[in-house]
Amino acid sequence: MDSKQTSLPPKVASLLKSFPTVLTLDVLWGDMDANQHVNNTKYLSYTETARVQYLETIRSQRDDPAMATIIPMVKENVIKYKFPVTYPDTVSVGVRVDPKSIKPDRFDFICLIVSQKHNIVVCDVRTHIVAFDLSTNRKANMSDEFLKGLEQWERRVDSGWELVVEENAQL
Q1: DSSP for 118-142?
Q2: 63 lies in which domain range?
Q3: CA-to-CA distance for 99 and 139, rounded, in angstroms?
Q4: For the chain, how big is the Rg over CA atoms in Å?
Q5: Which DSSP symbol is given to 126?
Q6: Would you call the peptide bond into 104 cis, given omega within 30 degrees of 0 as the criterion?
Q7: In Å, how far from its chain's centre is CA 6?
Q8: To 10 degrees, the CA torsion angle through 144, 149, 151, 155?
Q9: Is residue 2 part of a domain?
Q10: Is 49 domain-assigned?
Q11: Is residue 150 in some structural domain?
């Protein structure tokens, strides 16, 4: 996936202006189910892809050996479906960290999925992340360097920088 600065449709940009990472995905015909709307499991795939992009951005900006063994792991997803998405459409997925949720060993991602066809939020997801040490198979604390990376990336939206948009990323 190539990262590039791209403008979103005005209404979509307005809905996602507080998100430092925005991933834009085409809805595929195969994303729909027998009920003629995007299957509920696909929303999790969309947010997973956007969360991975967010974390890869943090990883690429930090030189921290701890990031090789202490990884963010999903503990829980809370999903609120608001409007059915159908093919054809394009969705934009905004990802940010809830600053009130950050603890040494955990934090929450907030994700919004916006339909570009309807210009509305179609789903919001809160994902509870815990730090996990692959070398010990136990819960761990995140490194200070990783936490600094989160803070630096989140400040992008506070300083008025453009949103990072991944155009038509592949799932």
Answers
A1: TTEEEEEEEEEEEEEETTTTEE-PP
A2: 10-157
A3: 20
A4: 16
A5: E
A6: no
A7: 17
A8: 160
A9: no
A10: yes
A11: yes
Helix axes 144-158, 40-60, angle to 10 degrees: 110
Contact 162, 26 (CB under 8 A): no
Q: Which residues of 5-16 are buried (b: 16+ CB within 10 A; e: fewer)?
A: eeebeeebbebb
Domain count within the chain: 1
Backbone φ, ψ for residue 107 (5° rounding): -165, 170
Residue 130 near residue 75, CB atoms below 8 Å: yes
Residue 22: closest CA among 91, 74, 71, 101: 91
| Alpha carbons 63 and 127: distance in angstroms, whole number | 26
Question: Tell me: the pLDDT tens digits for 121-156?
Answer: 999 999 999 999 999 999 999 999 999 999 989 988
CATH code for the domain in which residue 61 is found: 3.10.129.10
Tens digit of pLDDT for each residue in 105-116? 999 999 999 999
For residue range 25-35, what is the model confidence (pLDDT) as tens digits? Answer: 999 999 999 99
Q: Do 15 and 29 touch, CB atoms closer than 8 A?
A: no
